[in-house]
Amino acid sequence: MKRIAFWATIAGAAALAACADFSSPADPTGGLPDVLIAHPSLATDIQPLFTARCAQGGCHTPASARAGLVLSTGQSWSHLVNVASLHGAPMMRVLPGDHTNSYLWAVIQPDDALHPGLPRMPLAAQPLTTNQIQNIVNWITDGAPDN
Amino acid sequence: MGYYSALMIFAPDGAPQPASPWTVDLTANLGYVPPLSYDQRTAGRDKPESTNLTPVFGYPKVTLWLPYHIGVEAAYTLPFTVNGATPSIYSFAAEVLAATDKGWQLVPRVTYTGGYVEGPITCNKSLSTSSNPDWVFYWNTVCNAQESADRFEPNQWTLELNASGSSAKGKVLPFLNIGVVKYQSTFDIRVQNGTGIDTDHPILKMSATKGYGTAGATWILSPLFRLGGALFWAPGSVFTGRVSATLRLNAK
Q: How many Cα neighbours within 13 Å face the side chain of A64?
Protein backbone atom coordinates (compact mmCIF):
# COMPACT_ATOMS: atom_id res chain seq x y z
CA MET A 1 0.00 0.00 0.00
CA LYS A 2 2.88 2.34 0.83
CA ARG A 3 4.40 1.58 -2.53
CA ILE A 4 1.19 2.48 -4.32
CA ALA A 5 0.99 5.72 -2.38
CA PHE A 6 4.60 6.48 -3.27
CA TRP A 7 4.08 5.99 -6.99
CA ALA A 8 0.77 7.83 -6.90
CA THR A 9 2.58 10.76 -5.31
CA ILE A 10 5.27 10.64 -7.99
CA ALA A 11 2.61 10.57 -10.72
CA GLY A 12 0.73 13.44 -9.14
CA ALA A 13 3.85 15.54 -8.84
CA ALA A 14 4.71 14.79 -12.46
CA ALA A 15 1.27 15.87 -13.63
CA LEU A 16 1.57 19.13 -11.71
CA ALA A 17 5.05 19.77 -13.09
CA ALA A 18 4.13 18.95 -16.67
CA CYS A 19 4.49 21.94 -18.91
CA ALA A 20 5.36 23.17 -22.33
CA ASP A 21 9.06 23.97 -22.23
CA PHE A 22 9.18 26.92 -24.59
CA SER A 23 8.13 30.52 -24.99
CA SER A 24 6.72 32.38 -27.98
CA PRO A 25 8.23 35.84 -27.86
CA ALA A 26 6.53 38.23 -30.20
CA ASP A 27 8.86 39.60 -32.87
CA PRO A 28 7.53 43.07 -33.69
CA THR A 29 9.81 43.29 -36.74
CA GLY A 30 8.33 40.18 -38.33
CA GLY A 31 11.87 38.98 -38.87
CA LEU A 32 12.60 41.92 -41.15
CA PRO A 33 15.11 44.77 -40.87
CA ASP A 34 13.79 47.53 -38.66
CA VAL A 35 15.66 50.57 -39.95
CA LEU A 36 14.46 53.90 -41.23
CA ILE A 37 15.13 54.48 -44.93
CA ALA A 38 14.78 57.99 -46.32
CA HIS A 39 14.12 56.96 -49.91
CA PRO A 40 13.04 53.34 -49.90
CA SER A 41 12.83 51.19 -52.99
CA LEU A 42 9.70 49.15 -53.61
CA ALA A 43 11.65 46.06 -54.59
CA THR A 44 14.26 46.02 -51.86
CA ASP A 45 12.61 47.80 -48.93
CA ILE A 46 8.82 47.71 -49.22
CA GLN A 47 8.04 44.50 -51.08
CA PRO A 48 9.77 42.30 -48.45
CA LEU A 49 7.32 43.77 -45.93
CA PHE A 50 4.35 42.97 -48.16
CA THR A 51 5.65 39.47 -48.84
CA ALA A 52 6.32 38.59 -45.22
CA ARG A 53 3.35 40.26 -43.60
CA CYS A 54 0.57 40.53 -46.20
CA ALA A 55 0.98 38.14 -49.12
CA GLN A 56 0.40 35.05 -47.02
CA GLY A 57 -1.95 32.16 -47.61
CA GLY A 58 -5.56 33.17 -47.15
CA CYS A 59 -4.80 36.90 -47.39
CA HIS A 60 -3.35 39.05 -50.18
CA THR A 61 -2.04 36.35 -52.49
CA PRO A 62 -3.18 35.83 -56.08
CA ALA A 63 -5.33 32.87 -54.98
CA SER A 64 -7.03 34.62 -52.07
CA ALA A 65 -6.83 38.32 -53.01
CA ARG A 66 -8.86 39.56 -50.06
CA ALA A 67 -10.62 42.82 -50.95
CA GLY A 68 -9.31 42.26 -54.47
CA LEU A 69 -5.83 43.18 -53.34
CA VAL A 70 -2.71 41.19 -54.25
CA LEU A 71 0.54 42.17 -52.60
CA SER A 72 2.79 39.48 -54.04
CA THR A 73 6.04 40.35 -55.79
CA GLY A 74 5.45 41.77 -59.24
CA GLN A 75 1.78 42.55 -58.58
CA SER A 76 1.72 44.84 -55.58
CA TRP A 77 2.45 48.11 -57.43
CA SER A 78 -0.33 47.67 -59.98
CA HIS A 79 -2.77 46.70 -57.23
CA LEU A 80 -1.91 49.67 -55.06
CA VAL A 81 -0.93 52.82 -56.88
CA ASN A 82 -3.82 54.95 -58.07
CA VAL A 83 -6.26 52.11 -57.47
CA ALA A 84 -9.49 52.93 -55.64
CA SER A 85 -9.79 51.34 -52.22
CA LEU A 86 -12.66 48.92 -51.68
CA HIS A 87 -13.09 49.61 -47.95
CA GLY A 88 -11.66 53.12 -47.80
CA ALA A 89 -13.47 54.70 -50.76
CA PRO A 90 -13.16 57.33 -52.05
CA MET A 91 -9.51 57.06 -51.02
CA MET A 92 -6.97 55.47 -53.28
CA ARG A 93 -5.04 52.54 -51.91
CA VAL A 94 -1.91 54.57 -52.62
CA LEU A 95 -2.08 58.14 -53.81
CA PRO A 96 1.48 59.04 -54.87
CA GLY A 97 2.90 61.91 -52.85
CA ASP A 98 0.07 61.96 -50.30
CA HIS A 99 0.22 59.29 -47.66
CA THR A 100 -2.59 60.71 -45.53
CA ASN A 101 -4.96 60.14 -48.44
CA SER A 102 -3.63 56.63 -49.07
CA TYR A 103 -5.73 53.91 -47.51
CA LEU A 104 -2.68 51.64 -47.26
CA TRP A 105 -1.21 54.08 -44.76
CA ALA A 106 -4.50 54.42 -42.88
CA VAL A 107 -5.19 50.71 -42.48
CA ILE A 108 -1.84 49.91 -40.91
CA GLN A 109 -2.34 52.57 -38.21
CA PRO A 110 -3.29 51.48 -34.69
CA ASP A 111 -5.94 54.21 -34.56
CA ASP A 112 -9.22 52.50 -35.53
CA ALA A 113 -10.75 55.86 -36.43
CA LEU A 114 -8.52 55.94 -39.52
CA HIS A 115 -10.00 52.71 -40.90
CA PRO A 116 -13.56 52.42 -39.60
CA GLY A 117 -15.19 49.03 -40.12
CA LEU A 118 -11.92 47.30 -40.93
CA PRO A 119 -9.40 45.99 -38.39
CA ARG A 120 -5.85 47.21 -38.40
CA MET A 121 -3.62 45.31 -40.80
CA PRO A 122 -1.83 42.93 -40.77
CA LEU A 123 -4.93 41.20 -39.47
CA ALA A 124 -4.65 39.32 -36.17
CA ALA A 125 -0.89 39.79 -36.17
CA GLN A 126 1.73 42.08 -34.73
CA PRO A 127 1.50 45.62 -36.16
CA LEU A 128 4.24 46.94 -38.37
CA THR A 129 6.94 48.79 -36.49
CA THR A 130 7.20 52.57 -36.47
CA ASN A 131 10.16 52.39 -38.85
CA GLN A 132 8.37 50.04 -41.22
CA ILE A 133 5.33 52.31 -41.32
CA GLN A 134 7.51 55.36 -41.85
CA ASN A 135 9.30 53.63 -44.74
CA ILE A 136 5.92 53.11 -46.42
CA VAL A 137 5.16 56.79 -45.81
CA ASN A 138 8.51 57.78 -47.34
CA TRP A 139 7.91 55.56 -50.36
CA ILE A 140 4.48 57.15 -50.94
CA THR A 141 5.87 60.63 -50.39
CA ASP A 142 8.54 59.94 -53.01
CA GLY A 143 5.74 59.26 -55.50
CA ALA A 144 5.35 55.52 -54.88
CA PRO A 145 7.78 54.58 -57.64
CA ASP A 146 7.87 51.08 -59.13
CA ASN A 147 11.57 50.80 -58.45
CA MET B 1 5.44 22.56 -34.02
CA GLY B 2 8.33 21.48 -31.85
CA TYR B 3 5.95 21.06 -28.95
CA TYR B 4 3.60 18.70 -30.76
CA SER B 5 6.41 16.87 -32.49
CA ALA B 6 8.02 16.19 -29.12
CA LEU B 7 4.77 14.93 -27.63
CA MET B 8 4.63 12.29 -30.35
CA ILE B 9 8.13 10.93 -29.82
CA PHE B 10 7.79 7.17 -29.55
CA ALA B 11 9.84 6.95 -26.35
CA PRO B 12 9.85 3.77 -24.30
CA ASP B 13 7.04 3.35 -21.80
CA GLY B 14 9.05 1.26 -19.39
CA ALA B 15 12.08 -0.88 -18.86
CA PRO B 16 12.39 -3.23 -21.83
CA GLN B 17 11.58 -6.83 -20.95
CA PRO B 18 13.29 -9.01 -23.55
CA ALA B 19 11.59 -12.38 -23.78
CA SER B 20 11.92 -15.69 -25.54
CA PRO B 21 11.26 -15.66 -29.28
CA TRP B 22 7.70 -15.11 -30.46
CA THR B 23 6.54 -13.69 -27.16
CA VAL B 24 4.03 -10.90 -27.68
CA ASP B 25 3.42 -7.91 -25.41
CA LEU B 26 0.31 -5.76 -25.65
CA THR B 27 0.64 -2.27 -24.16
CA ALA B 28 -1.71 0.61 -23.58
CA ASN B 29 0.13 3.91 -23.33
CA LEU B 30 -1.23 7.26 -22.21
CA GLY B 31 0.61 10.58 -22.04
CA TYR B 32 -0.45 13.91 -20.60
CA VAL B 33 -0.60 16.86 -23.00
CA PRO B 34 0.05 20.01 -20.94
CA PRO B 35 -2.09 22.93 -22.03
CA LEU B 36 -0.35 25.85 -23.69
CA SER B 37 -0.57 29.32 -22.20
CA TYR B 38 -2.08 32.22 -24.09
CA ASP B 39 1.37 33.54 -25.00
CA GLN B 40 2.52 30.16 -26.20
CA ARG B 41 -0.57 29.84 -28.36
CA THR B 42 -0.10 33.21 -30.03
CA ALA B 43 3.35 32.25 -31.39
CA GLY B 44 4.29 35.84 -32.16
CA ARG B 45 0.85 36.79 -33.44
CA ASP B 46 -2.10 38.48 -31.80
CA LYS B 47 -4.55 35.70 -32.54
CA PRO B 48 -4.13 32.60 -30.38
CA GLU B 49 -4.11 29.28 -32.20
CA SER B 50 -6.55 26.67 -30.91
CA THR B 51 -3.96 24.17 -29.82
CA ASN B 52 -5.44 22.95 -26.55
CA LEU B 53 -7.69 20.42 -28.21
CA THR B 54 -6.84 17.34 -26.15
CA PRO B 55 -5.40 16.76 -22.67
CA VAL B 56 -4.06 13.27 -23.43
CA PHE B 57 -2.31 11.39 -26.19
CA GLY B 58 -2.16 7.63 -26.23
CA TYR B 59 -1.96 4.49 -28.27
CA PRO B 60 -2.12 0.71 -28.09
CA LYS B 61 1.15 -0.98 -28.92
CA VAL B 62 2.17 -4.52 -29.81
CA THR B 63 5.70 -5.84 -29.31
CA LEU B 64 6.96 -9.04 -30.85
CA TRP B 65 10.13 -10.59 -29.45
CA LEU B 66 12.35 -12.34 -31.96
CA PRO B 67 15.45 -14.51 -31.60
CA TYR B 68 18.59 -12.81 -30.25
CA HIS B 69 16.48 -10.63 -27.95
CA ILE B 70 15.36 -8.42 -30.76
CA GLY B 71 12.05 -6.71 -30.29
CA VAL B 72 9.90 -5.00 -32.89
CA GLU B 73 7.08 -2.67 -31.93
CA ALA B 74 4.12 -1.15 -33.70
CA ALA B 75 1.66 1.38 -32.33
CA TYR B 76 -1.29 3.25 -33.71
CA THR B 77 -3.24 6.17 -32.28
CA LEU B 78 -6.84 5.43 -33.16
CA PRO B 79 -8.72 8.08 -35.16
CA PHE B 80 -11.13 9.13 -32.46
CA THR B 81 -12.13 12.78 -32.82
CA VAL B 82 -11.61 14.86 -29.69
CA ASN B 83 -12.68 18.51 -29.77
CA GLY B 84 -12.53 18.44 -33.54
CA ALA B 85 -9.01 16.97 -33.69
CA THR B 86 -8.60 13.55 -35.27
CA PRO B 87 -5.29 11.69 -35.06
CA SER B 88 -4.03 8.89 -37.26
CA ILE B 89 -0.53 8.43 -35.92
CA TYR B 90 1.52 5.27 -36.29
CA SER B 91 4.91 4.33 -34.90
CA PHE B 92 7.39 1.52 -35.38
CA ALA B 93 10.42 0.61 -33.34
CA ALA B 94 13.17 -1.98 -33.24
CA GLU B 95 15.30 -2.73 -30.20
CA VAL B 96 17.83 -5.29 -29.10
CA LEU B 97 19.26 -6.38 -25.78
CA ALA B 98 22.84 -5.29 -26.30
CA ALA B 99 24.39 -5.90 -22.89
CA THR B 100 23.53 -7.10 -19.40
CA ASP B 101 25.58 -6.88 -16.27
CA LYS B 102 24.81 -7.17 -12.55
CA GLY B 103 21.09 -6.78 -12.95
CA TRP B 104 21.29 -3.95 -15.47
CA GLN B 105 20.75 -4.01 -19.19
CA LEU B 106 21.38 -1.76 -22.18
CA VAL B 107 18.90 -1.64 -25.02
CA PRO B 108 19.45 0.55 -28.10
CA ARG B 109 16.30 1.38 -30.02
CA VAL B 110 15.30 3.09 -33.25
CA THR B 111 11.82 4.41 -33.96
CA TYR B 112 9.82 6.08 -36.67
CA THR B 113 6.57 8.02 -36.21
CA GLY B 114 4.37 9.07 -39.11
CA GLY B 115 0.76 9.79 -39.90
CA TYR B 116 -1.10 12.96 -39.08
CA VAL B 117 -3.38 14.88 -36.74
CA GLU B 118 -6.09 16.94 -38.35
CA GLY B 119 -8.01 19.66 -36.56
CA PRO B 120 -9.32 23.24 -36.50
CA ILE B 121 -6.23 24.96 -35.13
CA THR B 122 -5.96 28.09 -37.32
CA CYS B 123 -9.67 28.60 -37.81
CA ASN B 124 -11.62 27.40 -34.82
CA LYS B 125 -15.27 28.19 -34.36
CA SER B 126 -14.46 29.78 -31.00
CA LEU B 127 -13.18 32.78 -32.99
CA SER B 128 -16.71 33.55 -34.14
CA THR B 129 -17.85 34.23 -30.59
CA SER B 130 -14.72 36.06 -29.47
CA SER B 131 -15.07 39.40 -27.72
CA ASN B 132 -12.26 40.67 -29.94
CA PRO B 133 -13.85 42.04 -33.15
CA ASP B 134 -10.60 41.46 -35.06
CA TRP B 135 -10.86 37.72 -34.51
CA VAL B 136 -14.50 37.70 -35.55
CA PHE B 137 -13.43 39.53 -38.72
CA TYR B 138 -10.65 36.96 -39.20
CA TRP B 139 -13.21 34.15 -38.85
CA ASN B 140 -15.53 35.70 -41.40
CA THR B 141 -12.94 36.71 -43.97
CA VAL B 142 -9.79 34.62 -43.76
CA CYS B 143 -11.57 31.52 -42.42
CA ASN B 144 -14.62 31.93 -44.67
CA ALA B 145 -16.67 31.23 -41.51
CA GLN B 146 -15.57 27.59 -41.60
CA GLU B 147 -13.29 25.60 -39.36
CA SER B 148 -9.95 24.80 -40.91
CA ALA B 149 -8.79 21.24 -41.47
CA ASP B 150 -5.17 21.87 -40.53
CA ARG B 151 -2.95 18.85 -40.77
CA PHE B 152 0.12 18.20 -38.65
CA GLU B 153 2.44 15.40 -39.74
CA PRO B 154 5.21 14.41 -37.27
CA ASN B 155 7.44 12.38 -39.65
CA GLN B 156 10.29 11.77 -37.23
CA TRP B 157 13.05 9.27 -36.54
CA THR B 158 14.71 8.62 -33.20
CA LEU B 159 17.77 6.78 -31.99
CA GLU B 160 17.84 5.90 -28.29
CA LEU B 161 19.80 4.11 -25.63
CA ASN B 162 17.87 2.67 -22.73
CA ALA B 163 19.52 1.62 -19.47
CA SER B 164 17.35 -0.25 -17.02
CA GLY B 165 17.20 -2.77 -14.27
CA SER B 166 16.63 -6.27 -15.60
CA SER B 167 13.89 -8.52 -14.27
CA ALA B 168 16.48 -10.38 -12.21
CA LYS B 169 16.87 -7.26 -10.12
CA GLY B 170 13.41 -7.14 -8.60
CA LYS B 171 9.85 -6.11 -9.17
CA VAL B 172 10.36 -2.40 -9.59
CA LEU B 173 12.79 -1.68 -12.38
CA PRO B 174 14.06 1.86 -12.90
CA PHE B 175 15.00 2.95 -16.38
CA LEU B 176 16.70 5.87 -18.02
CA ASN B 177 16.48 6.58 -21.69
CA ILE B 178 18.28 9.19 -23.76
CA GLY B 179 17.73 9.79 -27.41
CA VAL B 180 18.02 12.08 -30.37
CA VAL B 181 15.15 12.81 -32.68
CA LYS B 182 15.27 13.95 -36.28
CA TYR B 183 12.16 15.99 -36.95
CA GLN B 184 10.89 16.56 -40.46
CA SER B 185 7.48 17.74 -39.37
CA THR B 186 5.01 19.75 -41.39
CA PHE B 187 1.99 21.84 -40.50
CA ASP B 188 -0.35 22.35 -43.40
CA ILE B 189 -2.68 25.31 -42.83
CA ARG B 190 -5.81 24.17 -44.59
CA VAL B 191 -8.43 26.88 -44.55
CA GLN B 192 -11.68 25.75 -46.12
CA ASN B 193 -13.68 27.68 -48.65
CA GLY B 194 -17.08 26.86 -50.07
CA THR B 195 -15.79 24.04 -52.23
CA GLY B 196 -13.23 22.37 -49.97
CA ILE B 197 -9.68 23.07 -48.90
CA ASP B 198 -8.42 26.45 -50.07
CA THR B 199 -5.72 25.84 -52.66
CA ASP B 200 -3.79 28.76 -51.24
CA HIS B 201 -2.54 27.01 -48.14
CA PRO B 202 0.92 27.54 -46.69
CA ILE B 203 2.81 24.54 -45.34
CA LEU B 204 5.13 25.22 -42.45
CA LYS B 205 8.10 22.87 -42.18
CA MET B 206 10.38 22.02 -39.32
CA SER B 207 13.60 20.15 -39.83
CA ALA B 208 15.68 19.79 -36.71
CA THR B 209 17.65 17.32 -34.63
CA LYS B 210 17.19 17.49 -30.87
CA GLY B 211 17.79 15.47 -27.76
CA TYR B 212 15.33 14.15 -25.20
CA GLY B 213 15.23 11.91 -22.19
CA THR B 214 12.90 9.64 -20.30
CA ALA B 215 13.19 8.37 -16.76
CA GLY B 216 10.82 6.14 -14.90
CA ALA B 217 10.12 2.70 -13.62
CA THR B 218 8.35 -0.48 -14.50
CA TRP B 219 6.41 -2.29 -11.81
CA ILE B 220 6.14 -6.01 -12.50
CA LEU B 221 2.91 -7.16 -10.94
CA SER B 222 3.10 -10.67 -12.35
CA PRO B 223 5.00 -12.49 -15.11
CA LEU B 224 2.18 -11.50 -17.42
CA PHE B 225 1.33 -7.99 -16.33
CA ARG B 226 3.31 -4.86 -15.58
CA LEU B 227 2.76 -1.12 -15.21
CA GLY B 228 5.06 1.68 -16.26
CA GLY B 229 5.41 5.33 -15.42
CA ALA B 230 7.84 7.81 -16.87
CA LEU B 231 8.76 11.44 -16.99
CA PHE B 232 9.51 12.65 -20.47
CA TRP B 233 11.55 15.75 -21.21
CA ALA B 234 12.35 17.25 -24.57
CA PRO B 235 14.33 20.41 -23.71
CA GLY B 236 12.85 23.48 -25.32
CA SER B 237 9.61 21.66 -26.14
CA VAL B 238 7.81 19.82 -23.34
CA PHE B 239 8.07 18.14 -19.98
CA THR B 240 5.35 15.65 -19.17
CA GLY B 241 4.43 12.25 -17.77
CA ARG B 242 3.37 8.99 -19.35
CA VAL B 243 1.90 5.78 -17.99
CA SER B 244 1.47 2.35 -19.49
CA ALA B 245 0.05 -1.09 -18.81
CA THR B 246 1.46 -4.16 -20.51
CA LEU B 247 0.03 -7.64 -20.86
CA ARG B 248 2.41 -10.38 -21.94
CA LEU B 249 0.90 -13.11 -24.09
CA ASN B 250 2.19 -16.64 -24.57
CA ALA B 251 5.05 -16.16 -22.09
CA LYS B 252 7.26 -19.22 -21.71
A: 25
